[in-house]
Amino acid sequence: MKTIVHLLRHGEVYNPEGVLYGRLPGYHLSDDGRLMAEAAAKWLDGRDITVLCSSPMERAQETAEPIAETLHLPVGIDERLIEAGNHFEGHTFGVGDGSLRRPQHWPYLWNPFRPSWGEPYEQIARRMLAAMADVRDAAEGHEAVCVSHQLPVWVTRRKVEGRSLWHHPARRQCGLASVTSFTYDDGRIVKVDYAEPAGALSRRPSVPGA
């Protein structure tokens, strides 16, 4: 029994201050981000998708909206799809005027492998895989879409592929509104695919911090 679970990263966020917004409320898609969500909806249209769920963050739910309209599906909210927790939420992150120049933040940087500044990578992967298993069961024999965030999607992929969960953030293959697809065969993941339905849009000059 083949089932496919698509992890869709949300579109670009309006964030002119360039802060790490993490789980903070009030961050919405930019105009380009909404176009990215529409591009993802067009890419998913025609597939055998029977389940659609989203992270509780506004940007994820806004990315799910055109998909729900296109596929005529309700959007379920799953807390396990949320962005990773991060000590630096609400701050800019850098050496100049960013958080790195302030000594009070330095104790959070001692272990990049866990990481010490936020939710452990292993914990992120576990909650994501649990959410995926539930939608896989709900969509058995069909396909499902889960709208989430870059770090959770990328760490989950690395976990499935047997790679170290520690990584360089600049090397993540998880563009804005990208789709990472996991094919299950009788409950076991046998294939991972990647696509960028909004690739042309995501290569435009980006809103800082998005």
From TrEMBL:
It comes from the Bacteria. GO terms for cellular component: cytoplasm. This is Histidine phosphatase family protein. GO terms for molecular function: phosphatase activity. It comes from Actinoallomurus iriomotensis. InterPro entries: His_Pase_superF_clade-1, His_PPase_superfam, PGM_Phosphatase. CDD domains: HP_PGM_like. Signal peptide: none annotated.
